[in-house]
UniProtKB/TrEMBL annotation:
Protein's recorded name: Cytosolic fatty-acid binding proteins domain-containing protein
MF terms in GO: lipid binding
PROSITE patterns according to UniProt: FABP
Top-rank taxon, per record: Eukaryota
Listed PANTHER family: FATTY ACID BINDING PROTEIN
Pfam families: Lipocalin (PF00061)
Family indicated by similarity: Belongs to the calycin superfamily. Fatty-acid binding protein (FABP) family.
Lineage: Eukaryota, Metazoa, Chordata, Craniata, Vertebrata
UniProt keywords, alphabetically: Transport
Gene3D superfamilies: 2.40.128.20
InterPro entries cross-referenced by the UniProt entry: Calycin (IPR012674), Fatty_acid-bd (IPR000463), ILBP (IPR031259), Lipocln_cytosolic_FA-bd_dom (IPR000566)
Source species: Alosa alosa (allis shad)
Domain named Cytosolic fatty-acid binding proteins: residues: 5-22
Length: 132
């Protein structure tokens, strides 16, 4: 499938501002800006297996498109939500358990790169990954 493979973060756009809006403290924001995140995506039909490895943690996650699941961000923020497909774009709508606010995340392949976009409370950010 299109997203299958290993992706290493190459650059970010407005990511620190986004993390600030999410309530991530300054020390964790500075560390996350250089986390060397690597994501391995394996898709089989509507099922996904994700392996995230960074300087801070390793996480394995299995989900099925359209099925709600629980997830925690690296800073411990707990979310509940689901991924869906909209054409060639994965779209995730996740509700924070602590305040009920929604985080929207999308993944799309553009020019051979995986572009992961975020929106939270009107703040947009992107992380761009290259195959690696």
């Amino acid at each position: 499938m299109t997203f299958n493979g290993t992706w290493k973060v190459d650059r970010s756009d407005n990511y620190e501002k986004f993390m600030e809006k999410m309530g991530v403290n300054m020390v964790k924001r500075k560390l996350a800006a250089h986390d060397n995140l690597k994501i391995t995506i394996e898709q089989t039909g509507d099922k996904f297996h994700i392996n995230e490895t960074s300087a801070f943690r390793t996480l394995e996650l299995d989900f099925t498109l359209g099925v709600t699941f629980e997830y925690a961000l690296a800073d411990g923020t707990e979310l509940s939500g689901a991924w869906t497909m909209e054409g060639d774009m994965m779209k995730g709508l996740f509700t924070r358990k602590d305040n009920g606010k929604v985080l929207t995340t999308t993944r799309v392949i553009e020019g051979g790169e995986l572009v992961q976009s975020y929106n939270y409370e009107g703040v947009d950010a992107k992380r761009i990954f290259k195959r690696g």
